[in-house]
Specification:
Blueprint lengths: L4 H37 L8 H8 L2 H18 L2 H20 L13 H32 L5 H27 L7 E5 L2 E4 L6 H13 L2 H11 L6 H6 L3 H12 L1 H13 L13 H16 L2 H14 L5 H26 L1 H25 L3 H16 L2 H11 L6 H27 L9 H24 L8 H10 L1
Antiparallel strand pairs: 1-2
Helix pairs in contact: 1-4, 1-5, 1-6, 1-7, 1-8, 1-13, 2-18, 3-4, 3-5, 3-18, 4-5, 4-7, 4-8, 5-6, 5-17, 5-18, 6-7, 6-14, 6-17, 10-11, 12-17, 12-18, 12-19, 13-14, 13-18, 14-15, 14-16, 15-16, 15-17, 15-19, 18-19
Length: about 475
């Protein structure tokens, strides 16, 4: 049996739909959050503050923390494939529940505190799916892919994440159409008012619902297609299913190469798992900090609130500029895909960090001296583009390949859980920080928050330079030997 690249690509294509859903679910809030805010501002039994809106806009991330934390247990005990099927089902249920949180228990269209809790629970449910997919999709691809293609194929998962974000930006734009997004302003302490209630009524009542339910289509497709892909050969081999593992490896690599790979897997996986600290604390620390820095550079504040940021800069069509940013993100993600195996992981991360620092600090400076709105938009796009060829895909590549086989499930789960904790911290604090003012209307928050992100970009570059090993061209089994020597 000869190697079958078409078979490999078809498997990876299905797996990266999980990445697309990851991007879709996390970015759908960018178009829906204004309508959602206006809907709950109309509640009569509680005050929907900026703080509550920040938490609601990022509540899915609580589920992401849970999903990533349990991903290691599920992936190790039930397999990578079954974990992905579960993620797809959760995406689907969350889309339907977010569309109609009133289902069975509440009067439709009447905002209450109880309804807010139920809505957030549905978003948390989808977040669990995102957390599972974020950990298991790159793990699945890394364990399927040949070592000389692993970085590229895992990078396609990040491409799918960014493509999912672009798709939902476009879907949100189409759903919004000629309708007007609500404008909510704080008129006093705990007093919020919709400034254009009649013009924005459609968005307030149903627009945000359509945006959430649109995810049900790709979610259902993903859950169905995953049923037809194989389990990873490394999981099969570590669970005593050598014949099945050899069959999958043979179809991907050819029979002779498959036998070599299977023997290498078995030599580095004498036992199914080892204690988490079997290779020391440094490998776990590096994995955790890769995850934390990927979020503390602040990218998801842009991805989740892009239309609001562009509107605050004074741009006339913030949704259209958001779509333009999505296209730029796609193009620069391709840079990583086509260079990661040539240039290596570390150079891309370091140069990306420096570019992000320039963009973030540039945005802070533009707001400080009040330059034209398009200048601020360009800075944000530079910042975002540099993330897309570096921390976006490369962090996931490293997390999927840096850990030894026998601790990968648990170590990836911990690293990704920290990533979502950091994401929640950044996303839930961005909205109140961005609106922070020292005096009436001074825009202090616009400067402060991106200056802070710029500092973290510089620290991220230093961390990669000093702590992160280069993994280009190494097999997953080589990583076991690398950390055994440290």
């Amino acid at each position: 049996m000869k190697e079958n690249k078409l078979y490999l690509y078809s498997i990876v294509l299905v797996a990266v739909i999980g990445g697309l859903l990851f991007g879709y679910d996390t970015a759908v809030i960018s178009g829906a959050e204004k309508g959602l805010q206006a809907f709950f501002v109309g509640a009569g039994d509680f005050v929907y503050t900026d703080g509550l809106h920040g938490i609601t806009s990022s509540s899915a991330l609580i589920g992401c923390i849970i999903g990533s934390a349990i991903s290691g247990y599920l992936a190790s005990n039930f397999g990578r494939k079954k974990s992905l099927i579960l993620a797809g089902v959760l995406f689907f249920l969350s889309a339907l529940g977010s569309y109609c949180p009133e289902f069975l228990f509440f009067e439709h269209g009447v905002p209450t505190y109880s309804l807010l809790i139920v809505f957030n629970l549905y978003r948390v449910l989808g977040g669990i799916g995102v957390g599972l997919a974020s950990a298991v999709c790159p793990m699945y691809i890394a364990e399927i892919a040949p070592s000389n293609m692993r970085g590229t194929l895992v990078s396609w998962n990040q491409f799918a994440i960014i493509f999912g974000q672009l798709v939902v930006y476009f879907v949100n734009l189409v759903i919004l159409g000629d309708h007007i997004a609500p404008v909510v302003e704080q008129m006093g302490e705990n007093i919020y008012q919709i400034m254009n209630p009649e013009a924005s009524a459609w968005c307030t009542e149903v627009g945000w619902r359509y945006m959430f339910v649109s995810e049900a289509v790709p979610a259902g497709l993903f859950a169905l297609l995953v049923c037809f892909v194989p389990e990873t050969p490394r999981y099969l081999a570590m669970n005593g299913q050598d014949e099945k593992a050899l069959s999958v490896l043979s179809r991907i690599n050819g029979v002779e190469k498959a036998k070599e790979i299977l023997e290498d897997i078995k030599n580095t996986a004498v036992v199914k798992t080892e204690k988490l600290m079997a290779y020391g604390w440094v490998v776990i620390f590096v994995g955790i900090m890769l995850s934390v820095f990927q979020q503390f550079v602040g990218i998801n504040a842009v991805l989740y609130f892009a239309p609001r940021i562009f509107a605050s800069c004074g741009l006339e069509n913030p949704m259209m500029v958001t779509v333009m940013m999505g296209v730029v993100n796609i193009l620069f993600t391709l840079v990583a895909i086509f260079t990661v195996e040539k240039l290596g992981r570390k150079p891309l991360l370091i140069w990306g960090s420096i570019g992000m620092a320039v963009g973030a600090l540039g945005f802070a400076f533009v707001n400080l001296v009040s330059l034209p709105p398009m200048t601020a938009a360009v800075c944000i796009m530079i910042y975002s583009a540099c993330f897309m060829f570096s921390w976006g895909p490369i962090c996931w590549v490293l997390i999927s390949e840096i850990f030894p086989n026998t601790i990968r499930g648990a170590a990836v789960a911990i690293a990704v859980a920290f990533q979502w904790i950091a994401n929640f911290i950044v996303s839930s604090t961005f909205f109140p920080m961005y609106n922070m003012e020292l005096s009436q209307g001074d825009g202090f928050g616009h400067v402060f928050v991106y200056a802070l992100y710029g500092v973290f970009c510089i620290l991220a570059a230093f961390f990669v330079w000093k702590m992160v090993p280069e993994t280009k061209g190494k097999t997953l089994e080589d990583m076991t030997r690398l950390w055994s020597r440290k």
